[in-house]
Design goal:
The chain is an alpha+beta fold and 851 residues long. The chain is built from 29 helices and 29 strands. The chain has an eight-stranded mixed sheet, with no helix packed on it. A seven-stranded mixed sheet has the order 21-22-23-24-25-26-27. Strands 1-3-5-9-8 form a five-stranded mixed barrel. A hairpin with an 8-residue loop joins β13 and β14. α15 runs antiparallel to α16. The two termini are 37 Å apart.
């Protein structure tokens, strides 16, 4: 997956330096133009807040109204009278633009949503004919393919699929819901442009929904992908068939060949290259082709910790540099021809050529969102200059912003958009270079670079804190070195390798000292600081404080910005009262991960699954969540050794160095090398802040290394509040049951274990082998939480098990429908679902199970 947002970006990470340095204009645009542009942006912002889409007719009526208002903006007679009586002209123009953009954005969303995958086709074996439309992504599990669908058939009958789908082709053994393993055909080396016939199982794009988490569904919406799934390539399935190798998607085909050539040269597959060389090769490939997945996850961690991640992929800075160099070359060549100069002046030709060649480079790099924004900004500013108009910088800034929003309204929901425009706006407002002054000599340019970096660091640090909850304290020093080195040395060498392959080796060589420097900076104490996520009002105040700090004002006035910064810097999330506890069941897909918080302690029960070598629930979900909550984990309890419960443990332990490790994992488990683990044994008890914790299972004689199924040794944890809530006579209880099965449930019931609970974490994700009637009668929960992936291949929770809960009047809350679920002992009758908080129309809503 591409890097959608990057903490602590440099001063011009997705912006055009030429824009920031544009001369201040003497000719002001008519008041209607900037007001209308501001209205366009405001209209897109308003439409993106809609929880559900309206009908196309409603948006059409709004568009008609906006058109009538637009006629009256500059009209006379009755229009002018109406405008004067209704509102001032500026507000009228803003309202016109706002209504128009709200309606257009809504119509686009309605049209796009109409092409989504029908729920009736989810989980069906569909034969699809399509063309590979993007570079296939290969990892240790298989190959991920993006297909442009040409035809689809279900049981021989044609069906309608979205025009673009993304499927994974896994190789090797594959377990179905019954636990039976089947060998899948290994995926071949696929190439963009190939036409394939495949049997696939699809579902609507469904991401994980957690507080302060990544919005995967919005990202897929922007990518234009409306269905995901996997290829059915077992022995009983119709085999995949290569139909033809076409010339479609030539850019993607070229990108793939260049990427593979870089990797083959710098890290040949037939040799045993040094891992460091392989990682450097991935960075070079990303700089040339925009394939951000080629960069190792450990390297991304270093880049983010030092604030230079924006440089290690195709960013606006690279596109701008390419446009600037292209314009210089074209201008020099154009001036050599007097005939050409008579037809078109050299500056104008260079401006147009720079934009066109930058667009070609952006297309070659994958046409990512940052590249799109930069090309649109460059085109908008070029059009303004070619028209002969010279606007004040706020109008130029607003024009570029509105152009991006018109092209892609959903960019407003991306962090990179705000980082881009805040950075360039600050440079416009504070940089004397923007007024046309040029520093003299190399010393002056160095001073300008340092000042730009310092000003943008001051301005963007609060915004970075609001968007990512972290600040790279070494980011200023790292960017001061990395920006000129990557921009002027590494990237030109990497791009030059397309013409002469040895340049790739030079690019890799030039990256090595920079990588060593960044690694050294990332290891500094306090290299990066993580702060709890503050509410929006505090974040907005902090951003305003950052802008005030960067302004060209007296220092005494600028220091008053500390008052605006303080709420965000000192923010601490609310905690349960003494004697009470809160339980947060994270949305981690197929697995368990439950955070239990008391007044001053925290326990994490399980750490979710491992998705691939590069991704797990700890790194993707739990670590960001714990940081956003400002949480220090006292104990990590792993119920048993299965990968869907321990997959994210290593990432959590790395981020929580003081957490004690407890669980049913054998002495030889790889986690034991990271931190010695104590076994969980029935009878263990402790109290935190008046809340009692007790382990009910396994018994001492069965704990520890064993040849038994791991599920049978699951830690069962009972948590009891220290005082009852206002509406109940007994203290609320939560029971976390891991993956115990019917035999262990019966044993707990037989020995009279205290099982009654208000909240039950459903055993084994709702498997048929658990949740026996006798166990449910003993627990009698009010609410049952099921942590399972959407349309998971195991069929969890089993329909008969879910019905068993409903028959007893137990509310079943599934993470696939709820997202992260929050339950508090102070209000045991309620569960707050993350998917119900701030819903947006692009977010997937899983259909309810039949009663």
């Amino acid at each position: 997956m591409s890097t959608i947002s990057t903490p602590n970006a440099g001063p011009l990470h997705t912006t055009d330096d030429a824009i920031a340095r544009a001369p201040r204009a003497q000719e002001a645009a008519p008041w209607r133009v900037p007001a209308w542009l501001a209205g366009l942006v405001a209209g897109a912002v308003a439409q993106l807040q809609q929880p559900v889409l309206w009908s196309a007719a409603a948006y059409g009526a709004l568009l008609l109204l906006a058109g009538l208002m637009g006629v009256c903006v500059g009209g006379s007679g009755p229009c002018a009278f109406l405008r004067r009586r209704a509102m001032p002209g500026v507000i009228w123009a803003v309202g016109t633009g706002m209504l128009a953009m709200f309606a257009v954005c809504g119509l686009r969303a309605v049209d796009y949503a109409a092409g989504g995958l029908s729920p009736a086709l989810e989980g069906q074996d569909i034969r699809v004919t399509g063309v590979v439309s993007a570079m296939p992504q290969v990892n240790e599990a298989g190959t991920r393919i993006r297909l442009a669908v040409e035809a689809a058939h279900l049981d021989g009958a044609p069906v309608q699929l979205p025009p673009r789908i993304e499927v994974a082709w896994y190789g090797g053994p594959w377990r179905d819901a019954a636990g039976l393993a089947e060998l899948q055909r290994q995926p071949p080396a696929l190439t963009a442009g190939e036409r394939w016939s495949l049997t696939v199982r699809l579902k609507a794009p469904h991401g994980l929904r957690n507080p302060h988490g990544f919005d995967y569904e919005l990202w897929m919406w922007e990518q234009g992908v409306q269905a995901t799934g996997y290829v059915r390539a077992g022995s009983k399935d119709e085999p995949p068939q290569l139909l033809a190798s076409t010339w479609r998607h030539p850019v993607e085909r070229t990108r793939q060949s260049v990427r593979d050539a870089i990797l083959d040269r710098l890290a040949p597959p037939d040799s045993d290259p040094d891992p460091a060389r392989v990682r450097i090769a991935g960075v070079v490939a990303a700089l040339v082709t925009g394939d951000q997945r080629a960069i190792d996850r450990a390297d991304w961690d270093v880049f983010r910790a030092t604030g230079v991640a924006h440089l290690m992929s195709i960013s606006g800075l690279h596109i701008t540099l390419f446009a600037w160099l292209a314009a210089l070359v074209v201008r020099a060549l154009w001036r050599r021809s007097q005939r050409l100069c008579l037809v078109v002046p050299a500056p104008s030709a260079a401006l147009v050529a720079g934009v066109l060649l930058a667009t070609a480079y952006a297309l070659f790099s994958g046409w990512g969102v940052p590249a799109q924004r930069t090309v649109i900004m460059l085109a908008a500013i070029a059009a303004l200059r070619l028209s002969g108009r010279r606007w004040p910088w706020p109008h130029v800034w607003l024009l570029a912003c509105a152009a991006v929003v018109v092209a892609d309204p959903w960019a407003l929901a991306q962090a990179g958009f705000w980082l881009s425009f805040v950075a360039v706006g600050i440079l416009f407002a504070t940089n004397p270079i923007a007024g046309g002054a040029r520093p003299a000599g190399a010393r002056g340019y160095f001073y300008a670079l340092v000042r730009e970096q310092w000003v943008v660091t001051l301005a963007l640090t609060p915004l970075t804190l609001l968007l990512f909850g972290q600040v790279a304290l070494v980011g200023f020093a790292a960017n001061l070195v990395a920006i000129p080195w990557v921009t002027l040395v590494v990237t030109p060498l990497a791009l030059g390798g397309v013409l002469w392959a040895p340049f790739w080796s030079l690019a890799a060589l030039s990256l090595q000292p920079l990588a060593a420097l960044l690694q050294w900076l990332a290891q500094w104490p306090w290299a990066v600081v993580f702060l709890p996520a503050a509410p929006l009002w505090a974040g907005v105040m902090a951003v305003a404080g950052g802008a005030l700090l960067a302004a060209r004002l007296p220092w005494r006035l600028r220091l008053s910005a500390l008052v605006l910064l303080w709420p965000a810097l000192a923010w601490q999330p609310a905690r349960p009262a003494p004697g009470q506890f809160e339980l947060l069941a994270a949305d981690i897909g197929q697995g368990n991960a439950v955070l239990v918080r008391t007044a001053s302690h925290a326990l994490l029960y399980d750490a979710g699954p491992r998705f691939s070598r590069e991704s797990d629930a700890g790194h993707r979900v739990l670590v960001p969540l714990l940081r956003a909550l400002g949480e220090r984990v006292d104990t990590l309890m792993l119920s048993h050794r299965d990968a869907d419960h321990t997959g994210g443990a290593a990432a959590v332990l790395a981020q929580q160095p003081t957490a004690a490790l407890v669980g049913s994992i054998e002495a030889e488990h790889t986690l034991q090398a990271l931190r010695p683990a104590s076994p969980c044994v029935a009878g263990q008890r402790w109290t935190w802040d008046g809340v009692e914790f007790e382990v009910l299972h396994p018994l001492a004689q069965s704990a520890g290394p064993s040849a038994a199924r791991p599920n049978t040794l699951s830690c069962v944890l009972r948590i009891v509040a220290g005082q009852p809530p206002a509406e109940g006579p007994a203290p609320p209880v939560a029971l976390l049951a891991g993956d115990i099965e019917a035999a262990q449930e019966q044993a707990l019931v037989a020995r009279g274990a205290p099982l009654r609970a208000d909240l039950l974490l459903v055993p084994h994700h709702g498997s048929k082998t658990s949740s026996s009637p006798a166990f449910l009668e003993a627990v009698q929960p009010r609410t049952a939480l099921v942590q399972a992936g959407y349309r998971n291949r195991f069929g969890h929770p089993a329909p008969e098990v879910a019905q068993r809960y409903r028959d007893r009047g137990i509310e079943v809350v599934e993470s696939s429908r709820c997202g992260a679920a929050v339950w508090s002992s102070s209000a045991p009758a309620a569960v707050r679902c993350e998917r119900d908080a701030n819903p947006r129309y692009w977010q997937h809503r899983a259909p309810q199970r039949p009663e």
